[in-house]
Amino acid sequence: MKNLNLALKAAELNYIQVTTAVSTAILGVSYPPSQGKFSDDVSSIMKSITAFLAAHESPLLVNVYPYFSYINNQKDIPLAYALFNSKQVVVKDGQLGYKNIFDAITDAVYSALEIAGGASVEIVVSESGWPSKGNGTPKRPGKNIETYVFAIFNENLKPLGTEQNFGLYNPDMTEVYHVEFPN
């Protein structure tokens, strides 16, 4: 990241931000969200990455998949909590209440960033199977979270299983399900 940033500066492309994308598997602790911290295996490198991002005011790209959290822990994670359908708080964390796991995972990463010295580092959700536009998370209310849909098309050439089926459209351009995108 440092070398890429130096190359961009040398080419007078200072306006291009350098960042990286991470999976939420980097979290050693994610519950409750306020206790989120990076796993010991990646803590050192994440401190370096966090320092770089904070110094350059670049966001951390995070792949947040409520689906995988739910599918790997159906005993403890209600489906409504994974689908943004819970009408009540499912996880109470101090003064914060979580009605969906997307917000809880995102805030766990914010907590891990704070521990690593990156309280000012913003998160951009770079991948999600179930993206959402809302009013921020309980830790960052009123803050919209930039989110990217993964993926536009189902990927029928991937090995059989769920990984093939995150798209909004089939390869033949027929809708898997209808989604209204705001203007």
UniProtKB/TrEMBL annotation:
EC top class, as a word: hydrolase
Enzyme nomenclature, EC number: 3.2.1.39
PROSITE patterns tied to this protein: GLYCOSYL_HYDROL_F17
Protein family (similarity comment): Belongs to the glycosyl hydrolase 17 family.
Xref: Gene3D superfamilies: Glycosidases (3.20.20.80)
Substrates-to-products reaction catalysed: Hydrolysis of (1->3)-beta-D-glucosidic linkages in (1->3)-beta-D-glucans
A single BP term in Gene Ontology: carbohydrate metabolic process
Keywords: Glycosidase, Hydrolase
Protein name, as recorded: glucan endo-1,3-beta-D-glucosidase
Entry superkingdom: Eukaryota
This protein's record includes keyword Hydrolase: yes
Pfam families: Glyco_hydro_17
Record GO terms (molecular function): glucan endo-1,3-beta-D-glucosidase activity
Organism, scientific name: Quillaja saponaria (Soap bark tree)
